[in-house]
Amino acid sequence: MPIALWLNEYCTGNDQVDREHQVLFHIVNSLHEAMGQQAALPILKDLLNTLATHTVLHFESEERLMQAHAYPGYDRHKQSHERLKAKVIALSQKFHTQGESAIEELTGFLAEWLVHHIKGEDQKMIRFFQEKANQASVLLPASGDR
Ligand code: FEO
After folding, report:
1. Ligand 1 in contact with 117 (CB < 6 A)?
2. Comparing C-alpha atoms, which of 31, 87, 92, 35 is closest to residue 59?
3. What's the pLDDT at 136?
4. Which of 28, 83, 134, 142 has a 20 to 30 Å separation from 114 between CA atoms?
5. Nearest ligand 1 atom, CA 77
6. How many Cβ atoms from other residues are within 10 Å of residue 92's Cβ?
7. d(Cα 28, Cα 51) in Å, to the nearest integer?
């Protein structure tokens, strides 16, 4: 049973962002499943590294988009990313010192955090990009007016 179930309501309307979110859901579920199957330590470590790498890449990709669109909520959104990265690092370290309970904590935390963040900050950000694009298209003269 997946711990992070993807629902259509999590779509933001930006294909790249949605694909990256689905990859993160997939990795969280793989990690959860590996824990359930009592996978060997190297497998868990690999999955943790994959999760950390994709999380950082995804945040960087959103942060580039926000900067490209001069998004006014950039600082707040980036801080939210930084807090999550710190949490992933802390729980990865806890895994190395205290073992697998840290992974359960991490997957449970991430499954909730992702939904909350996507339905809040991420959808708000993409709505801003879409509204900006709509306003720009209204301001452009139709081709017959030129
Ligand atoms: Fe999709 Fe802001 O993380």
Report:
1. yes
2. 87
3. 86
4. 134
5. 2
6. 17
7. 7
